[in-house]
């Protein structure tokens, strides 16, 4: 299972959601759907978002099992 980190990463970036949504060419409502995993972010928008946040695309999500392994360490 994937855990979405988009909301957390945007908060940490200091960018406003309306700025990010505008740069991605989407509405803030659609951005919220990506954050809440109501829909998956298309790969082209994922690359743009990752570039804006100065992260790798695979940082946008994490596997739930990775989180479980962290708590065992």
Question: Can you describe what's shown?
Answer:
This protein is mainly α and 73 residues long. Helix content is 60%, strand content 8%. It is built from 5 helices and 2 strands; from the N terminus they run βααααβα. It has helices at residues 6-13, 17-24, 28-35, 43-53, 64-72; strands at 2-4, 61-63. A two-stranded antiparallel sheet has the order 1-2. It is globular, with a radius of gyration of 13 Å. The two termini are 20 Å apart. The mean pLDDT is 91.
Residue ranges: pLDDT <50 for 5 or more in a row?
A: none
The end-to-end distance, rounded to whole angstroms, is 20 Å
Radius of gyration: 13 Å
Give, in order, the helices and strands.
EHHHHEH
Helix content: 55-70%
- Average pLDDT across residues? 91
The strands making up the biggest β-sheet line up spatially as 1-2
The tally of strands reads: 2
Which structural class do you get from the secondary structure elements? mainly alpha
Approximately what portion of the residues adopt beta-strand conformation?
5-15%
| Major sheet characteristics | 2 strands, antiparallel
Shape: globular
Q: What is the helix tally? A: 5
Task: Write a compact overview of the structure shown.
The chain is mainly alpha-helical. The protein has helices spanning 6-13, 17-24, 28-35, 43-53, 64-72; strands at 2-4, 61-63.
